[in-house]
Amino acid sequence: MRLTVLCLSFSVAAAGPAMAASCGNNGSGFEKWKANYAAEAQAQGVGRKGLAALDDTKYSTATIKADRAQHSFKLSLEQFMEKRGAATIVRQGKKLKQQNAKLFAQLEKRYGVPAGPLIAIWGMETAFGSYMGKQNTVSAVAPLAYDCRRPEFFREQLIAALRLVDDGVLSSSSVGAMHGEVGQTQFLPKNVFLYGADGDGGGINLNKKADALASTANFLKGHGWQRGKGYQPGQPNFVALQGWNAASVYQQALAIMGRQIDGD
Description:
- The protein is mostly helical.
- Helix content is 56%, strand content 2%.
- It has 14 helices and two strands, in the order ααααααααβααβαααα.
- It has helices at 17-21, 30-43, 48-56, 61-67, 77-83, 86-99, 101-111, 115-126, 137-146, 151-166, 189-195, 209-222, 238-244, 248-262; strands spanning 135-136, 175-176.
- It has a two-stranded antiparallel sheet.
- Helix 8 (115-126) packs across helix 12 (209-222).
- It is globular, with a radius of gyration of 19 Å.
């Protein structure tokens, strides 16, 4: 993924009552919804390439199933950390911190975010870039925008994804995680617009380590990160970790692993 000119403002106009009410709990109405939603997408600035990508999308039963069955977030903190391999993330994370000391020093100077939480996120999301997903990105977001569970949230992501296709950042064949996340730290499409950052001077490409980590630091800063403050529960910067993921066990796991990686 490459984004040279970054749009720092992104908004999605509210859909009309009829459009807002249109959703489905299975794939039977997806093609009709998609055809109708194209007009809404066009009204929100999506161009020819983005509309063609929307037309190409397929209903993904696997994505909907994954969205409705996030069982790991129902575990206790101890169970969650064991399931997600926290000890391995910390062990590998300490090595990566040493190997990339210059990069993490630059990111902390620029954004005020230390290495620990960035590495914890990197490890949790993609095992340090080793697995970024195989699901077609637009065909992940479009069914979620149609599904009745969280349509408003994912319609913002769909408009963003289609605009990224227009800009050449994504294509109709781009792949990522089940909910449309892309890159080494799994950014949703809207967050690419809001927080995508260039970490090495070569333009924004979230499949690259430096850009993914810079974007993650920028995200945390944008969610209230304060330079030099703590990030454990009850401390000022924990709110930024809460902004990264809504699940309490995920937030706490990031704080614990980050502290262990930072050696605090």
